[in-house]
Sequence to fold (180 residues):
Amino acid sequence: MKLGDFIEQTLEDYHTRVLAAIKPLTEPEMIWRPNQESNSVSFIFWHVTRVEDRWTNTFARGEPEAWVRDRWSDRFGLADGDIGVGYSADQLAAFPNLSKEQLQAYFESVRGDTLAFLRSLGEGDLDSVPDRSPFPESPGAVSRFRGFSLARMYRQLIGEADQHLGQISYVRGLQRGLNK
Fold:
């Protein structure tokens, strides 16, 4: 199996699992938080999609992220540069109640960009190193991600997606119990 095919299958598996995890949730369950300093399923799903958007479009493609390009920020009522990192308890409390449909539509748009880019790569392209950061507004991120290849980007993206899927499943389980 080629590495690109493996990455695509892994992303497709995540796609299936994350949508299955949120499918049965009601809107109140999507926005429920275990406590004032915890994230909701809605917030986590939005954040991980924002991160994928940044990795794919800003870092890999060197183009405007879908969030800005397609005005998702306006539709969600959030700032262009917001990616859901470093929120305070007050910011979490003020986070808009995004519908599952909105979140899924944004996720599908970003995932389309991700797969289109992955499928456009030729042999050896995964070793290329874009000379940019997925988070250019953060000086720490600029140095942290310097030298990342596209293969390393996909490893980072897959690891973060799985981490956040675990969080989504945990918050869901706190509300519904096991596999409900």
Notes: The chain has one domain: 3-176.
